[in-house]
Amino acid sequence: MTIKVLLVEDSKISLVILRRIINEFPQLKVVGEASNGLEALALIPQVKPDVICTDLHMPQMDGLELTTEVMRHNPIPILVLSVSVQQEDTHHIFDVLEAGAVDICPKPLAGLTTENQEFKRELVNKISVISGVRVFKRKRRYSLQHQAVNLNNLTTAPTKSYPKPKIITIGTSTGGPPALQEIFSQLPANFSVPILCVQHICKGFLQGLIDWLAPTCKLPIKIAESGNKPQPGIIYFPPEQRQLKLDKQGNFVCSDTVPLDGHCPSATVTFESVAKVYGKKTTAILLTGMGRDGAKGMLTVTQAGGLTIAQDEATSIIFGMPKEAIELGGAREVLPLNAIAPMLLELLQKQSILQ
């Protein structure tokens, strides 16, 4: 089955190069080209694309406005292609993801060429993956004022008896930023345990992600530093292209060791390391994402007696990572995205006999 691609790009040279790259692959076909979002909206009913690849900055209607309109009226998987993701306005990229774009693919800083094999592989792989993604009409912006949950007002308890966690770990990939935003926006300022978060993300994006998450999150968000101990009420990300572990004393170890299953950082590496230190007091969460990273790590946490939560299929952009954990037997709970933060808060306020 051929995947039909609509290109939206204001540079004529870039359009030519992208068309040549995509049409090299028999499973892909460029069915339309537009120089801005307005032209793209007019083309969509004619060419009926499976995937839209759009630049971020364009005249008349940019990539954010285009994504907003597509997701409001005729949801189609969108891949954002822009050199801007490697510059100072990465915040705008995460706005596009929040609006409903599925993924991002940075253009090479040196410029597009048909000889750049690494870019070709990444582009074609991302188009192929997101072509099968179900996208939905979108979506409110998150409001910190309305989303935060008061820990003292909770009256319900989890349906099963789990240990009260001392640390929470999260792994996610494609679709992760908006999912993290939903969870973090519900956590109150008195959240009492540290959170370690592994997000697969292109080099140069991490600080932009943190800056984008911060306005809707009452908790401070930091990049972990080797030798420091995770502190309650702080969200930590590993440094870019570093594995995040804990040593026997519970201090961070941020290393540039080889990727696990192609990932550095890897959710499995972090989950397994934390489970060795915290055992049954570990809670591990696996959110939307492509591939199987985190599944083995979730199983390790489960075997240590900790709570493991997989995001359900209905609310996942890509169900790959949670599905792998579920099939491996590593997920003790499978929850929709909006139920994950409330369960964490219930666990932290309860008086468990397992503490």
From TrEMBL:
Residues 161-351 form the CheB-type methylesterase domain. GO terms for biological process: chemotaxis. InterPro entries: CheB-like, CheB_C, CheY-like_superfamily, Sig_transdc_resp-reg_Me-estase, Sig_transdc_resp-reg_receiver. It is found in: Cytoplasm. Residues 4-122 form the Response regulatory domain. One of its GO terms (cellular component) is cytoplasm. It catalyses: L-glutaminyl-[protein] + H2O = L-glutamyl-[protein] + NH4(+); [protein]-L-glutamate 5-O-methyl ester + H2O = L-glutamyl-[protein] + methanol + H(+). Its EC number is 3.1.1.61, 3.5.1.44. The modification 4-aspartylphosphate is found at residue 55. SMART domains: REC (SM00448). Pfam families: CheB_methylest, Response_reg. The keyword Chaperone does not apply. It comes from the Bacteria. Keywords: Chemotaxis, Cytoplasm, Hydrolase, Phosphoprotein. Phosphorylated by CheA. Phosphorylation of the N-terminal regulatory domain activates the methylesterase activity. PANTHER family: PROTEIN-GLUTAMATE METHYLESTERASE/PROTEIN-GLUTAMINE GLUTAMINASE, PROTEIN-GLUTAMATE METHYLESTERASE_PROTEIN-GLUTAMINE GLUTAMINASE. Involved in chemotaxis. Part of a chemotaxis signal transduction system that modulates chemotaxis in response to various stimuli. Catalyzes the demethylation of specific methylglutamate residues introduced into the chemoreceptors (methyl-accepting chemotaxis proteins or MCP) by CheR. Also mediates the irreversible deamidation of specific glutamine residues to glutamic acid. Belongs to the CheB family. Contains a C-terminal catalytic domain, and an N-terminal region which modulates catalytic activity. This is Protein-glutamate methylesterase/protein-glutamine glutaminase. It comes from Coleofasciculus chthonoplastes PCC 7420.
